[in-house]
Each structure stands twice: as C-alpha cells, then as structure tokens.
Amino acid sequence: MAPSYSHPKMVPFNLVLKDVYYIPKLIRTRPDVSIDDELLEATSSHMFHVVSLCTAVSHGCSVEAVRSYVEHYREEESDFKEMMHLATPVLYFAMGRNSPEMTSLLLKFGMSPHGPDDEAHFIPPLVFAAIHGYLQSLDMTEVIKILLASGADPRTVPEDMWENYLDMP
C-alpha cells in the first residue's frame, strides 16, 4: 500500500513510482480551461495540492504557472522547505516531460535531487530519468545534467546500466 504524505498546509496524497518507469496518467478536473488557468485556480485553496501540481505538469502547463502556484504557498520558510521536500514526486512529472526548465525550477524550490525519502515506493530521480529516456527514446541529457549539478548521486545508477558503455569509443 502506498504511503500517504501529509503536512498541515498540504492536501494529503499518495503517489507510487517504484519500478514503474512511466508516469501515471492523471485526469484534469477542469478540461474546459487552459491547464495554466486550472493550476492557478487551485491557488484559491489554502492547502498546497501536490496531485494538482503533478497533473498540471503532466498536461504541459508552463514553467511560469508552476512558479506562480508554488510561490503562492511560500510563507514561513521552514514550512515551505518541508512542503517542497514532501512534494518531490512532482519532479518525476517534470522529468517525464523531459523539461530541463521545469526540473531546474522544482529543484530550486527545494525538491530533492535524491528523490523522496520513501525508497520503497520511488526509484532515484537519476535512475528514473535514464530509464524513462531510454524507454521513451528521449534525450534526457540536459535533465540528467541538472540533476547531477543539483547534487544527485551518480552512484544510484546501477553499474549494469552503464558498464558496457565504458569500452565504446
């Protein structure tokens, strides 16, 4: 069973990505408006909603809409940092979009380049980016560079994923 992540200023949520290299499909609540408008309407809630943010990112919202949404909930810095750490699953949706700009923004807000603390239900972001890129035939180089520059540990990528490439010219 997936754990529930919660914070007093967040809507509790469950997300699981462990051993799943495809981003789950999330359903929009307001398909009658643009995805940016749908996300910005969500700021009417006093609670930060991770699933709404994941949905918006997966449906192609703009970097500016994400910035506005997240900044709306930036009040007390210690609460904000804790919320961003808990919201790290959003990072996977940005990587699933192969968006270096979105990935960079989310990391700057404090989402972890190491992934959520829950290793039972999530694989490290670096591993996810490499596998997702391979399976979707995407060049994830820029996203991977951003993760590494943000402190992701390259040793989280199992050796059998890269050792064959050492001998190639």
UniProtKB/TrEMBL annotation:
SUPFAM superfamilies listed in its UniProt record: Ankyrin repeat (SSF48403)
Organism of this sequence: Pyrenophora tritici-repentis
Record's protein name: Ank-2 domain containing protein
Gene3D superfamilies, per database record: Ankyrin repeat-containing domain
Superkingdom: Eukaryota
